[in-house]
Amino acid sequence: MANIIDYVLWRGDIPFAQVPLCAVDALVLSYLSYMPYDGLVSGEFSREGAMLADVAEYFLEHGLSSSCMIDSVKEDCLLLEAVKDSERFGTIRLTGYVNQYNEETQFSAITFLPPAGPAFVAFRGTDSTVVGWKEDFNMSFSSEVPAQGAALEYIARASSVLPMTAILGGHSKGGNLAAYAGIFAPPAVQERIACVYNFDGPGFNEQIIQSREFHQIDMRIHTLVPQSSLIGILLWHAEPFIVVKSDAVGLFQHNPYTWQVMGGSFITVPERTRESRLAEDTIKNWLSTLDNQERQRVIDGVYSVLSASDGRNLSDLFEGRNVRAILRAASSMDEETKEIIIDSFKRLGTSLKETLPDWFEDAAGQIRTMIAQRSAEKNAEKLERLAEKFIDRSADREEKA
To answer: CA 138, CA 204: separation in Å to the nearest integer?
Structure first.
């Protein structure tokens, strides 16, 4: 099946002036925000930014060891090759690249300026750093994590320099940041936001979903998730999901290269899988048993253990010396923190037990429907065969007569 690489190859000769930006274009640009533009794209905003075709050629000539998200170097190079030779994408200019990382924040954004149409502001999703993932979990209790504040500042600065309509977008945490910037942007900036694309990004905590600011822009937020989404269903969404067909399994569906495309649109399915719905119900039920203070204590406690190692990235945590450091930190935790963490995971287990019966009932209902459907199909086949035999026998009688 076709994916975003095939889409760029297929539509690459059609400029945005002829066919405006669509959801698949938005995913391509959102994914390109993961590329390491350090030293290639200025942090200042300008209409005369670097040409995307030139930047793609640089990556291909000098080698791309990895993007910031996942180990998809082969696919990344194929995408960059397609972009480089594309009139639609190659002529886009890049500006306003920001890449921040410290003990509290993982934030990156870039603005794409097509020759025609609105600007596209892309926020990078969670990378492989431990800090990046901690920010994701902090969203469950915090009204604003540092990356969300940085996204709000970024869109305000971009709007002051580039007085044009903009589309915001991002994949994973980047989708959440795009939505947050759209929700809380000043009214003058918000008026110029055409829409927001959230590709399998987490939602928000209960306070934000119920806020007046959210409901002023919620209909402009387009949230797309794969059918077995496990990241995009985290926290709360009030806007409807568009469910995209993926050719991967489980968590691997988070990879945009697995999302299926036909022509200029995603291939969609009516609803998410039972497993995705079970995960969503379990997590929401669990979080509802924890107040904001308890959520923070749990996350801070787990992070303090992980940060005891020398590992910056998640993969570093599995190195022998880092595993030993993590175990030492866990054993030296104060009793109150240990008790809170253990209790919270007990509640997670209870939440799973509470949601499983409904999941089994739903699964059983679908199985009964499937059995009934197959039984009906078999009966129809039997009737068809009997009808054929009856017709054959009638024909034989007529011949003998």
So the answer is: 10
